[in-house]
Amino acid sequence: xxxxxxLFWFLSVLAIFSAIMMVASKNPIHSVLWLIIVFFAxxxxxxxxxxxxxxxxxxxxxAGAIMVLFLFVIMLMNxxxxxxxxxxxxxxxxxxxxxxxxxxxxxxxxxxxxxxxQLVQTNSGEIGLINNLGLSLFHDxxxxxxxxxxxxxxxxxxxxxIAKKND
Amino acid sequence: xxxxxxxFLSVALxxxxxxxxxxxxxxxxxxxxIELMLNAVNLLLVAFSKMHHAAIADANAGxxxxxxxxxxxxxxxxxxxxxxxxxxxxxxxTHSVDVNFLNRLKH
Lengths: 167, 107
What we know:
The complex is a heterodimer of chains A (167) and B (107). Chain A has helices at residues 3-24, 28-48, 52-77, 89-111, 130-139, 142-163. Chain A is mostly helical and 167 residues long. Chain A folds into 2 domains: 3-128, Up-down Bundle (Four Helix Bundle (Hemerythrin (Met), subunit A)), CATH 1.20.120.1200; 129-167. Chain B has 107 residues and is an all-alpha fold. Chain B has one domain (3-103): Helix Hairpins, CATH 1.10.287.3510. Chain B contains 3 helices and no strands.
């Protein structure tokens, strides 16, 4: 087993375990911290796939900005395990069974797909580097890039207008 | 690495996100589970882009997938800011983040 495979299995187990803990933990702050670990594991996968730009963007945007925003909102509302609304256990069981059934359907559908020979290139390849991605972004995708800036502006105005105290 | 390992990892993360949306009542946790599902899809897109790159000789093959992931992250960031503003507003009105209170929106 090569180092890449060891890292792949380690990061996969870490991601799935942290995701389960995120859904299962009662305290919302613990949920946020477990989700940050999931994002770190997914960034590790991006590094393994040599998508370095996306790894850094994932860390900065998701683990850095978005999760800090979640943490601020949870702490602002003073949520903890005592105030956490709980579904009754039959509804919880139904939810877990529904998710498991979806997993079962996906696995059954993909189990026999002829994908064994389709290899993912790890540790090599230049497309994930910021040089190539930047060239593509500013040559072929200039218009979507500019439109996304308008989207950010409208999201910013919308967030301020919605969260403003109006009385 | 064969592609099916990445497919099964992403499917597992996505289904954990779906189970979380169905089992939790805290609106913020439901929102975080949606972020988890978005990230599972992003991981699969990057894996497919690298698979495409390995299969085709062109130097820039598969770069579209990674640009697409970048745009998904952009849209997710905008979505989170608006969504959290809505949750803060709901908390201010009802003093709770329980999604069961949202079944009567007009009050």
